[in-house]
Amino acid sequence: MLRRREPVPFAFVAEADRFRSNVTPPPRQRASAGQMAGRWLLGLTIVAGLVGSLVLGMPALSTPASPPAQQSQASQGH
Q1: Region 44-72: what's the mean pLDDT?
Q2: End-to-end Cα separation, the chain, in angstroms
Q3: pLDDT value at position 55?
Q4: Which end of the chain has the least Cβ crowding within 10 Å, N or C?
Q5: For the segment 6-56, what is each residue's pLDDT rounded down to a tens digit?
Q6: How far is 13 from 49, CA to CA, in rounded Å?
Q7: CB of 17 within 8 A of CB of 8?
Q8: Sign of the C-alpha dihedral, residues 53, 58, 59, 63?
Q9: Integer Cα distance of 15 and 52 in angstroms
């Protein structure tokens, strides 16, 4: 059973689902040793930057366990 389709202004749009290409894409080229080293170095730099920012930022984010007990001289009656 063949279903009739509604008319489409462009014939290639109506027939696009039936099109199959017999052309295979070229194989992907493998990355060279320099490119692989560059990718590893970039990743390592990003990770080191994140770890470094955490190490430097953690003291600023932490709250002291108990506030320092300082009394001014005015509160002592001097």
Answers
A1: 84
A2: 105
A3: 93
A4: N
A5: 666 666 655 655 666 778 888 989 999 999 999 999 999 999 999 999 999
A6: 50
A7: no
A8: positive
A9: 57
C-alpha distances (whole Å) from 58 to each of 5, 26, 50, 67, 73 are 65, 50, 12, 18, 34
Can you tell me the distance from the alpha carbon of 45 to that of 43, in angstroms, rounded to the nearest whole number? 5
Amino acid code (one letter) for 32: S
The pLDDT assigned to 22 comes to 78
pLDDT at 10: 62
